[in-house]
Amino acid sequence: MPDILHRISIDAAPQRVHDLIASTDGIGRWWTGCPAGGEHTIGSSFSISFGKAEAPAAVMEVVADTPEQVVWRVTDGPDVWIDTQITFALRPSGQGGTTLLFTHAGWRQADEFMSGCSTNWGAYLTSLKTGAESGAFAAYPAGEISRWG
């Protein structure tokens, strides 16, 4: 099964990056443009929405949440996302920085939609980077590069 992989160097402490990934408010700041619904605790689920959509775009179960790694399993959303796993692995680097290894794993096939998602993940991870470093986030819709529908 193909995976989406990204490696990002961030000039911010791992705890700062973790806090933005592992909180519903943080997710809204760097990714969706609005806070996620639900709770970000192991075994719980949260939903994400983009813009003024009435229904959530996706629902994720929090599988792991440690200072070194955050893992989500997609339980609802686009058919090709269902049962995929999103992992943020964090490790200290340089002088107080963070290396983020991102994986969106378990895609059924590499296709045009997966390619567009990879492009958008790169943009949103850049939003996470600049936001963690300077507070200047570029969440949806500013961070969206590949549009669908």
From TrEMBL:
**All copies of domain Activator of Hsp90 ATPase homologue 1/2-like C-terminal, residue ranges:** 11-130
Cross-referenced InterPro entries:
ASHA1/2-like_C, START-like_dom_sf
Looking up Pfam families in the UniProt record yields: AHSA1
Q: Which Gene3D superfamilies match?
A: 3.30.530.20
Domain of life, per lineage = Bacteria
The family assignment reads: Belongs to the AHA1 family.
The molecule here is called Activator of Hsp90 ATPase homologue 1/2-like C-terminal domain-containing protein
